Amino acid sequence: MPPQEPREPQEVSRDSVEIRDDDAISIQEALTLASEQEFALGKSTLQRWTKFWYENPGGAVRCVLVTTRGGKIYKLSRDNFQAWAFEQKQNDKSHETPRDPMRPSKASRDPARPQETSGGVQENTNRLKELENENMQLKIDVGVRKQLLERAKQEMDDLRSMANGLLRENGSLEFQLRQLAAPKPKKETEAPSQNAPVDNSTHDVGTSSV
Description:
By secondary structure, the chain is mostly helical. The chain has four helices and three strands, in the order βααββαα. It has helices at 27-36, 43-55, 78-94, 118-181, and strands spanning 24-25, 63-68, 71-77. β2 and β3 form a beta hairpin.
């Protein structure tokens, strides 16, 4: 069960908060540590706690704001966070109000969490089941739509391939039709040769003398 919203701790100057380099971790690294401890903690929830620890020093976890090339990011104390996550997890199991592991119980400055009634727990459990069912349904819908898109893409590829094949076949048939429709060349008739010999000889006609 994730931690509830924090309450105001005693005031401590931000300037007095320091974290060693080897002890400083980012929010993402803190989430990894929580996962290793099997402590359910969402990123948005941890971000709210981190902002709270920074704006209200003196809580269970020391927090500073560091300026980097990418901008300003929060850094947490690894030791503080591991102890806080462990106690939060133990409190979830025992249903006790969480206390700051770094301070005596009477002077606890860790954000307290009120006990929940059985009705509230049941309501949260039902809501969680509804969200899980909705998440599962969304995954199923996404999977079905992905399959439909892949099928439609395959059909489009098949149609495109078929169209290209028909175009090639049509071009081949058109070429064959042009070859069949072309007129055959006519054979030229042989003309008499102009170089054939001509008989120009004249026959002498006999004249009779009178």
